[in-house]
Design a protein that fits this description.
Length: 198
Amino acid sequence: MVENVLITTADGYTGYEIANQLVSNFRFKAKVKEIYATAENVNECKELEKKGVHVFQFDSSDNFNDKIKADIVVLIPPTKEDKVHRSQNLIKACESAGIKNCVLISTATTDIADPKEQPHIAHFLEIEKAAKHASFEQLVIMRYSKEQMKKGKLPIPINNGKFAPAALKDVSEAACVMLAHPEKLKEYHGKPITLTGS
């Protein structure tokens, strides 16, 4: 059982769905004691608060020290131009708060993206590197494509790599499995997991 979980960017689709799954799905609800979530726009998370999620506004220059005591963080990079900088600050805040485990939600094809041709995807590689160099005891990187959800476009194929998109509900359930079963963190530590459809 995981005592406390922190989910970043809960005002976005992915973070919201992961938090919602943890408080609503009977498979995960009993496995987590407290759920904390950060959001730039806390008004987007009112329903999560009604369900018992502790939501607080987080500026990327803040620290978590007195706000939470979490065992694991689900780190979701914000959808901002300066996502790398903000994510690096989130990682530092997690380290200073003593959070030992991390599930990083990244994007598919990060490992084969050309920084000149696909700078947006290459940003996720920088975030992954920052997480790998952090002091997390267990780090799991989950990769999937967010483009179909945001832009209504399927980025297939990308260079020589092809993949089918994954449904947001499936991505959130996969993250919740990691949170509810800490032994999975050890099993997948340091190994990227690419989530795709069929």
